[in-house]
Design goal:
Length: 182
């Protein structure tokens, strides 16, 4: 059964809106990624503030919403006004770095040399060592090292992937028709 012309025009309109929306996101993906990271870390900061102001239910909802992203261990978390953040220290650093990476990349994009994958992996090694040595009980990590290694890993990942994504999203997209001929 063939859809009517009216239904097709509705589908076409919907498809056009989606295409335009995705086009805006792809054109401004760096801003989208930075704002997303900023909003995410902002919610983690807002959670203890809400708890300290007596908005326990709202704070609990945010803790619950952030739980899939982070185990929220108190001994690995920053505290604000006597209440733990919804993120642990390393995740906080990674999202702060993610929020900062976009604007820094935009400012330095023309002068930036692509970061080789090996260098990006090497920048993740300190985080891996920090986590692994703590997990096996060789030492206890602290907030400074969690924050530093998380920020380093996130900035290195951004320095490696942002130029690649920038090049991909700047290239014209090829749209293939889904229509078939009979």
């Amino acid at each position: 059964m063939n859809p009517s012309a009216h239904e097709l025009s509705g589908v076409d309109r919907f498809t056009d809106v989606l295409n335009r929306g995705f086009s805006v996101v792809f054109r401004h993906w760096i801003a989208v990624a930075s704002v997303w990271a900023l909003v995410t870390v902002g919610g983690a900061l807002l959670t203890p503030w809400l708890a300290s102001r007596g908005f326990g239910t709202a704070a609990q909802l945010l803790y619950w919403a952030y739980r899939p992203l982070c185990p929220q261990r108190p001994d690995h978390s920053f505290f604000i006004a006597g209440h733990k953040m919804a993120f642990e220290q390393r995740e906080t650093a990674m999202f702060v770095a993610g929020a900062v990476a976009g604007p820094v990349y935009v400012l330095l994009r023309r002068a930036c040399i692509r970061v080789p994958g090996r260098l990006a992996i090497a920048a993740v090694v300190p985080m891996f060592v920090d986590v692994a040595t703590q997990v096996v009980g060789l030492r206890e990590s602290d907030g400074f090292w969690r924050f530093l290694t998380g920020a380093l890993a996130a900035l290195a990942a951004a320095a490696w992937v942002y130029p690649k994504l920038d090049a991909d999203f700047s290239s014209p997209m090829i749209v293939r028709s889904t229509e078939t001929t009979e």
